[in-house]
Design brief:
The chain is built from ten helices and nine strands. It has 322 residues and is α/β, with parallel strands linked by helices.
Length: 322
């Protein structure tokens, strides 16, 4: 699609005749689908579905991440007229990527939410379509992992975060964004020995056996070494990647519920994500973007870039001849 087509295509989020193309439209107008991809529930021929999970009722501190998917989509409209930098291929033109819309759920029936999300993801991946989820608080990762583990077996997990989210909690009915990975291990959804947490900088002695690359190690050893260590840990095992935006330092991502200083710079996260290309990524999410605390929009912009990197990672091994 050429620039002149922007005046005749009439909002490609609805009228796009071909999913495999860049979008030359005004970033300040039109529907804010992710990367101006087509809004649809039709999964026929689709490679990857972006879906929003506007849930923040599991937070321990500041709420607001229910508005995260909308903000990330809005920020993503700054990106879709160019191929993603540094990847050497253009997934926006080579693959069918859609915006599947948000999970619909009854906010007043919180106990029903985990199963609603589980079935939402299960329905998509049953069609051999991958998902990148836009959160929402970090609890959403647990029902998503349930769906993926049902299909792939126990997963490797790559987690970017300030917190391990492995605080002990044996009540499997509790909905808490700080204990869901404790439960993921207890439920056999992830294999901690083949998993790694990156950017950690809060104390929690109960690591549940996860490999940890804390923020200081990232700063001292560098992105290239960290990416190599991640690849060694997960190998070619089916891997899910969850990126809590508070893995970034608050200087780069202030709009989040539990910011912690000393975190990753955005360039470090970008370099690590690009250097782990080739892992067997089956899905991913970006969570904890909280627009009420994001006065400049920088956090949503970071979240949109992370989601783009996850998209590139997911599709890397699926290229013809790769």
């Amino acid at each position: 699609m050429a620039l002149k087509d922007a005046q005749t295509d009439v909002d490609a989020a609805f009228t796009r005749p071909d999913d495999r193309r860049l979008s030359f439209e005004n970033a300040f107008g039109g529907a804010t689908s992710f990367l101006r991809r087509r809004y649809t529930k039709d999964l026929t021929g689709v490679d990857l579905a972006i879906t929003g999970i506007p849930f923040d009722q599991a937070v321990t501190n500041r709420p607001g991440t229910r508005l995260g998917p909308r903000a990330i989509r809005d920020a993503s409209t700054l990106q879709p007229c160019d191929p993603p930098y540094g990847w050497g291929y253009n997934p926006l033109c080579e693959f069918s990527i859609i915006d599947y819309g948000d999970l619909a759920f009854d906010y007043a029936r919180v106990a029903d939410f985990p199963d609603a999300l589980f079935h939402h993801i299960q329905k998509i991946i049953a069609r051999d379509v991958g998902t990148i989820c836009l959160g929402g608080d970090h609890y959403i990762t647990l029902p998503i992992l349930r769906a993926y583990a049902e299909k792939f077996g126990p997963l490797s997990l790559i987690q970017f975060d300030a917190h391990t989210d492995t605080w002990a909690d044996d009540d499997m009915d509790r909905i808490d964004h700080g204990t869901m990975l404790y439960k993921a291990v207890k439920l056999g959804l992830v294999d901690p020995k083949r998993s790694v947490q990156v950017g950690i900088r809060t104390e929690n002695p109960n690591t549940m056996g996860f490999n940890i690359i804390d923020a200081r190690e990232v700063h001292e050893t560098g992105a290239v070494a960290v990416a190599g260590k991640i690849r060694d840990i997960v190998g070619d095992h089916p891997t899910y990647l969850t990126f809590d935006i508070d893995g970034l330092d608050p200087a780069f991502a202030p709009g989040t519920g539990t910011p912690v200083w000393g975190g990753l710079a955005s360039w470090q996260a970008a370099a690590i994500l690009r250097d782990i290309a080739g892992i067997n990524l089956v899905g991913g999410d970006v969570v904890e973007v909280s627009p009420p605390y994001d006065t400049t929009g920088a956090t949503a912009i970071a979240g949109a870039h992370v989601a783009m990197e996850l998209l590139c990672l997911y599709l890397w091994n699926r290229r013809a001849g790769a």
